[in-house]
Amino acid sequence: MSVKLAEAEQLIKKAEKSLKTSFLKWKPDLDSAIEYYGKAAIIYQNLKMRKESAEIYCHIAKLNAENGSFFHCAKAYDTASLLYREIPDFPKMIECVETAGKTLRQNGVPDSATGIYNKAARALESELPEKSAGFYENAADTAELEGKALEAADLAGQAARIWTRLHRFTEAERLLRYEMKLCECAAESDAETAFRVCGKAVLALIVIKLFQGDSIAASKVYDEAVQRYHFGQTDDAEPAASLLQVFDSMDATGAANIVKMPSFRAMETEYAKLVRSIKFPSADSFGESKAPDPSTEKGPENDGGDEAEDQDIC
């Protein structure tokens, strides 16, 4: 290990020397410096010295930007983000991902930015779900810029799923509606797939509204989807209508069967849990109070009667 460390240190010294200028050397040799730093970073990475390796990759990224190679700049930041993820150092990881994505978007490489955002979002789902949802949305925005509406819709749906898990329903609704809009755009080239995907988003939003106890809002979502997104032609329309019907008719018993329908069982885990947690109103809870049964109540003449007789006997 000591030999490899010494080799890495020598490479760093060579890189630093390449960046120096003199009377006869007016410009730093960026290409050589990047090459030497890259070799040193790999050695540190192989030695499991992730922090040192990540720091060098960040330095390489800056040199690539100075050299006008923005794609390689972003790739270096991406590599650094993976190393910070392993440490783990999430603030540094997030900073690298954001810089890499921004660099790629600003320099005309949005497809690579989408991949970086998506990869980071998946990595952060458990540890930092809010940031994960944000990266999924960034990926969706970037995919939309590329004209990849269906891919963007899927990514927006992933963000909505995370917000639903956190019970952040305002954000979830915003992303689900964004997903629907993207599907509407995608329908120009592939209507069947677009409206099928859109139907899943509509069903998810209906479930959220019913979980919140707002059947009026849920019905409005259904009606809007039928008119605008051809929801009535999808396989999810009938289950959604049945769910709304049992909720409005206060048929809690029927609801137990409806939520077992394939459309609800096939939903993402976050939505499937919501379906099972919907508090369906019962007709009994809205009826008049039952009259008390005289045989079970103690009248004034009976209240404590036995005890009185016992006292008399005594």
From TrEMBL:
SUPFAM superfamilies: TPR-like. One of its GO terms (cellular component) is vacuolar membrane. Residues 303-314 have a biased composition (Acidic residues). Keywords: ER-Golgi transport, Membrane, Protein transport, Transport. The keyword Transport applies. It is a peripheral membrane protein. Signal peptide: none annotated. One of its GO terms (biological process) is vesicle-mediated transport. Gene3D superfamilies: Tetratricopeptide repeat domain. It is found in: Membrane. GO terms for molecular function: soluble NSF attachment protein activity; syntaxin binding. Residues 283-314 are annotated as: Disordered. The keyword Protein transport applies. Pfam families: SNAP. Belongs to the SNAP family. This is Gamma-soluble NSF attachment protein. The lineage of its organism: Eukaryota, Metazoa, Spiralia, Lophotrochozoa, Platyhelminthes.
